[in-house]
Design a protein that fits this description.
56% helix, mainly alpha, 10 helices
């Protein structure tokens, strides 16, 4: 994947990362992503993700969606995390499924993939190690490494909610009939 392609696919998400070191690290990690990350579905079984994530570029769709969910969670928890911690979580959600094309143990494979022999620059980067630790815990209770911090739980929640949106959408209640109150009924309900 070219640097321009990374910018094209994740420009908005990368721009949210204020810390230039974290943003640069995340950009490099995405640039190094396996080719399958850019084209594969997010769920081959079809069980765990919405339909639009099960086809071509499903991982991209899921990753972008999970990033949006994380932004909503961070907005709801305003003041809970400092700017740097928010940027670490933003980075972690962007790389959480970087190696999902390798199977169920993908959370643990991100560390090895990015810290491999050919990627020595990442080995000595404590910022990257922290991001990968949080990203590797994104599967929550279903993963080998369970979240061990509030930041890791937030990334897990964002991933899980994004993957389950199809359930929420399918179970919405039928539209309720609009009830029109008479003037007398409205006056009784809303005096004054």
């Amino acid at each position: 994947m070219s640097i321009n392609s990374v910018n094209l696919q994740f420009g908005k998400e990368l721009a949210r990362i204020a810390n230039s070191n974290i943003r640069g690290w995340t950009h490099r990690a995405l640039f190094m992503a396996p080719e399958a990350f850019w084209s594969e579905p997010s769920s081959k079984s079809g069980k765990y993700h919405p339909e639009d994530e099960r086809g071509d570029q499903g991982l991209l769709t899921h990753t972008k969606r999970a990033s949006e969910v994380l932004e909503t969670l961070l907005d709801s928890a305003a003041g809970k995390f400092d700017a740097n911690d928010q940027d670490v979580m933003r980075s972690a959600i962007l790389i959480h499924d970087l190696c999902s094309c390798f199977g169920k143990s993908h959370p643990l494979m991100v560390r090895g993939y990015l810290f491999g022999e050919s990627n020595r620059e990442f080995v000595n980067d404590p910022c990257g190690a922290h991001i990968i630790d949080i990203a590797s815990r994104h599967m929550g209770r279903w993963g080998c490494d369970r979240p061990d911090s509030e930041m890791a739980w937030f990334v897990h929640y964002a991933d899980n909610i994004a993957a389950k949106l199809h359930i929420f959408m399918a179970t919405q209640a039928e539209p309720r009939p609009v009830c029109v109150a008479t003037a007398e009924e409205e006056a009784a309900l809303c005096p004054g």
